[in-house]
Specification:
The chain is of the alpha/beta class. Helix content is 25%, strand content 21%. Strands 1, 4, 5, 6, 7, 8 and 9 form a seven-stranded mixed sheet that branches. Strands 2-3 form a two-stranded antiparallel sheet.
Length: 262
């Protein structure tokens, strides 16, 4: 799984990421089956009160050149999804009204009809909750949005979630989410923790307390989502536990910043 900031990189770069294999016949293997393009955000229109889906200029340029910039990534066998994040204006997935959710989902529908995305990734960070004049966070609007997006996307498109801090910490509790089992509407989820000031953290809500699992960032399982669909950190943890020297080396490699093969 990749996140690619189109302000800095051409999406075609991901086709140059490889992992060393264990034999000379299979020395390199491509990694990253899902590519999430950034940066799109939730913006707020003060005149109308709408929550708007806003694309950064560089992302818009890439999308307008889909055939040359994005299609080669899909032709490599990867899924290309749009990552939607907070825009720092005090509005986000956790404080939208029902009418804003309906409007926002319609904006996503229009974008999906214009470009051949394979799905949507939701990462609620940097939304700027608590700004004066904006509604407080609640625990039902995000689950409602996820359910509405799944109904829009159907079964043929991916809907993924980045599990990160307060916006998703209550997704285990259906009493808080208004009875919505969030995981039933997701294809996959993974942790969004990445802090350059601390050692790599394996965040695994399904195996809290086990060796190797982060105690700095404890999480609870997302209701309706089985452990096999909460990946990335789980994959690394499995590799570390296998006992195979090759697998342990691979896990250690995954814990390091990656650079493209030249």
């Amino acid at each position: 799984m990749f996140y690619l900031n189109t302000t800095q990189y051409d999406p075609r770069l991901v086709t140059d990421y490889y992992l060393m294999g264990s034999s000379k016949d299979d020395w390199y293997k491509a990694i990253g089956s899902i590519v999430n393009l950034r940066r799109s955000t939730v913006a707020y229109d003060t005149a109308t009160g709408r929550a708007l889906l806003k694309l950064a200029p560089d992302l818009r340029y890439v999308l307008d050149h889909w055939t040359t910039r994005v299609r080669p990534v899909q032709e490599s066998g990867r899924k290309v999804c749009l990552c939607i994040e907070g825009g720092g204006q005090g509005i986000g997935f956790c404080n939208m009204t029902d009418s804003q959710i309906e409007d926002f989902v319609e904006q996503v529908r229009l974008l999906m009809s214009q470009y051949s995305f394979d799905g949507i990734n939701l990462w609620d960070r940097n939304s700027g909750y608590g700004k004066e004049g904006m509604p407080p966070m609640n625990t039902t609007s995000y689950p409602k949005l996820i359910k509405a997006l799944r109904e829009l996307l159907g079964k043929d498109k991916l809907l993924t979630l980045t599990d990160y801090e307060e916006p998703t910490e209550y997704f285990w509790d259906t009493a808080a989410t208004g009875g919505i089992k969030v995981g039933e509407y997701l294809d996959y989820a993974w942790s969004g923790y990445c802090d350059e000031k601390e050692a790599y953290q394996i965040v695994d809500p399904y195996h809290q307390g086990e060796a190797g699992v982060s105690t700095l960032h404890p999480r609870k399982p997302i209701s309706g989502l089985d452990s096999e669909r909460y990946f990335e950190s789980r994959q690394v943890l499995t590799l570390l536990r296998t006992g195979s020297p090759c697998c342990r080396r691979r896990a250690s490699w995954l814990l390091q910043p990656q650079i493209p093969r030249t």
